[in-house]
């Protein structure tokens, strides 16, 4: 199939860990992938295969940890 554009808005925790591999493979197959992620995240890494755009949130990482 032809490659297309894909916008991914992952949830935190294991949801993203499950999706990350799929997103990387889609990017390797020619899809243009943009992942929209909050600035406060446990999984923030600088990927090679896709673009990450962040948006500001009022929550700190410590508050996120305490919530879970």
TrEMBL record:
Cross-referenced SUPFAM superfamilies: UDP-Glycosyltransferase/glycogen phosphorylase
One term of GO molecular function = UDP-glycosyltransferase activity
* InterPro entries on file: UDP_glucos_trans (IPR002213)
Ribonucleoprotein among the record's keywords? no
Q: Which domain of life is it from?
A: Eukaryota
Keywords in UniProt for this one? Transferase
- This one is known as UD18 glucuronosyltransferase
């Amino acid at each position: 199939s032809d490659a297309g554009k894909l916008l991914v808005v992952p949830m935190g925790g294991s949801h993203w860990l499950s999706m990350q591999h799929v997103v990387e493979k889609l990017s390797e197959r020619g899809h243009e992938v943009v992942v929209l992620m909050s600035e406060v995240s446990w999984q923030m890494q600088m990927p090679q295969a896709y673009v990450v755009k962040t948006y500001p949130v009022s929550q700190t990482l410590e508050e996120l940890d305490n919530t879970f």
